[in-house]
Amino acid sequence: MKLDSSISAVITGGASGLGEATARALAAQGVKIAIFDLNEAKGEALAKELGGVFCKVNVTSEEDVDAGFAKARAAIGQERILVNCAGTGNAIKTASRDKATGEIKHFPLDSFNFIIQINLVGTFRCIAKSAAGMMSLDPLPCGDRGAIVNTASVAGEDGQIGQAAYSASKAGVIGMTLPIARDLSNDGIRVNTILPGIFNTPLLAAAPEAVKAALGAQVPHPKRLGNPDEYAHLALTMITNSYFNGEDVRLDGAIRMAPR
Question: Which residues are catalytic?
């Protein structure tokens, strides 16, 4: 797929972090951008800077997602690119004992479901609705009608203590990549997933520099946190290389996460 002003893209979680970097990289190629996010201030500012459109979208809401795609398509046309970066996490053990009181607690199921609904179901909701729109388009000369990039995590393969919900949600994204790519193959829509390692995103913004340095030192090479621009570079490769399909690719400096 050649990137230029004839192409439109939707980026969920596009107001910051990995999504923002990808929105900027696509816009630099002339692609028209729609940003789905809950942060209105950042989303509106970035959309204005890039000449795109902001849509306040909670990916767990069917109504929000439908309204977001309707607004985006009215402003920039039917998207050929979807990049799913919306997501969150928590750190709760499956069951644990309070060291002071001896009280035993288990992972609240509402908290588990919350993560699954955002990271897994929200991602699938956006994929399904975007793919249905892409199917209405004529194929490009390369044969593509569209390209979808999802964001999983290395935690989907080697989750740490307290990451049961997060790891399950990201493993689900990994697991559905190939069957969705197969579902959409006859219509020329490609689907790939990136598994980032430890990246310097807003989730780590409040961490002290010493903590960030310690995290970066765990990476075999290069010994640092990943940069959002590096995620964006891989996302654009997945989009532009028309033989890239049905793949789950780690982007992690060769790290394999320890139990904690």
Answer: 166
